[in-house]
Structure of O-antigen polymerase:
Amino acid sequence: MVTIISIISILAYIISLFKLKKKWLEQQIIFLIIYLIGLAIVGELDVLLPIYFVVSLFPFIKHIRKISFFTGMIILYFGLYLMYGLIVQNTIGTLVTFIAKIWQFIVFFIVYDSDIVFEKENYKKIIKMSVITETLLGFYLMMTSTIVDANGLVRLVSNAQPITGNISTVILPISVYYYLKNRENSKRTKWFMSVSLIMLVWIVLSGTRGYTIEFAASMALIFYDYFTNGKVGRISQKNRILTIVLLVIMIFASTVAVPEIFEKVQDILRLKSSVGIRTFENAAVIEFMKNASFFAAVFGIGLGGQGGSYPEMQEALYRQFNLGMWNRNHYLSDSGALFHNLYANVFMCLGISGLFILIIISIALWKRITYSCKSSAWIRRIMHLFQLSFLFVNYYRWSAVCGISEMIIFALVLKLLKNDTMEQNLE
């Protein structure tokens, strides 16, 4: 099955590469859809993710003619770890760690530095296509998923891969850009808000708290602006204010009349659910770093290193096994990234220097957002919130596409905003 789906996916990728040439956003969303459909069917990342990794980068390769000094240093830093892991350590573990954990940060700067030229794209079409696909995948997983969460609800995943809600979070920057361009158009913003609520439903039903956090952080200011924006006309604004007031009254009345509703909402959002095995994982990594050698603490064990081969890690893991941590064979025998928490993986594989580099990368990303969004403080705040939520949810297990789509789309939208600023300055 994996082979058949992989071949079909490759053919679909090739068609999209030619048919959607220079339609950068639509092409990347189609790539994501092809990948998620295949993943929903087979439920395995081992083959489909590496294929997607290559395909998603391929359109930008010939446009990487000049990269910034910072991007070059980031590529060099992670590249040295990659080469060492491939030559000296476990090859599969190295590749998995690099693609699934590290590449999301590198690809942002590669795309942002590329010299691509944008052609006019139909953003409404992209959003509509994304929501339709999200809905179809949601219904498919409702019929096929068998994983029941602690709240008693079925999680819309395929073999524990968080699929439903992924598209809705990836297109958040596109959604923000579309709303920005149509803020004064009552009809279009009304359609957008309706579609956003559909996306929110699928994000919540996915059972992935990270998706919900990212959506809330990115859309909060848009929802506020929608109900307070006076540029749509006095009548439209009054209708919007009346709508939100009625909704608040209805929610309050329902909560008072049926107190169980509030608890049910908490269950659906998994607000009371624990972080699971992450507590054990984080404790093990911290204990390992306290007792590890100076070299391991500063530079880590490498992208393909075997954590379980270190006596300090063995001791830390067995302490957590005694406290209830499960899946011991995985933690003792596997190589590369072992944990759900991105930062725990970076701490172990790259050491303190790796965490320091992530901080530098985050600062550089923050500066590029600020530079790209000079023309609007409002849009700049939203993009900063998107970045912060992205970094926060990496504490949890991240998206089915390991953040790659998120960062590519984010970089493309920032380039669009930068182009808009430049055009305004010229005018």
